[in-house]
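In keeping with the milestone schedule agreed at the kick-off meeting, the structural modelling team has produced records for the first pair of proteins. Each record is given below as a sequence line and a structure-token line. The laboratory manager (R.T.) confirmed that both were archived under the project's standard naming scheme.
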Amino acid sequence: MAKLSRARILIRHKAAKGVGSCLCAEMAPQCSEMDAEGMAVLLNSAKDCVFRRATGLKLDQADVETAVEGCPVNTIHIGFRSTRHSETVRAIRCGGKRASLPHTI
């Protein structure tokens, strides 16, 4: 039996900056879709300052990278889980205030 990978990628999307090109929903439909107003929505995401943050499967990385590279306004960003420390609570700067958010990848 093949072992399933649990590797994850971190996807961040600045939806307010989007222009409704539909590229992200076409290139990575497993991670985003278009809403009723024609704007992209990152699926299963949580608010993280001006971004929406979600995790995706590492096996979807190529599709997400295609969306990142093709985004006309650079609203999609991708990252990776690198250390055990990154799985714990992290502090981020948000609007001049310090906020602690659970890092759930």
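The second protein of the pair:
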Amino acid sequence: MTLSGESSGGLSVLSQLVSPGARGLFARPQQQLAAAMKQYWTDLAKTGSPDLWTEPLWPRFDSASQQLLSLTPPQPQVETGFAAAHHCPFWALAS
């Protein structure tokens, strides 16, 4: 099984996440997230941008705003404060 495409007879993980057969495997919020993620990947493959047709828009990361797209159920959302919430300065010093 491959992440996004089929190769050597393998199945795509992303296609399995949103296939009708997977509906009983995931809760509704997880299904919604899987569908949004599939659309982001599709947009990226078609256009080079992950968010031409998908909301919320995937922000370009920069150190000033530190906005990122959080991929948590039920749907992606733009967040800030990741570094503080995950104690990144501490872990940067620890490495």
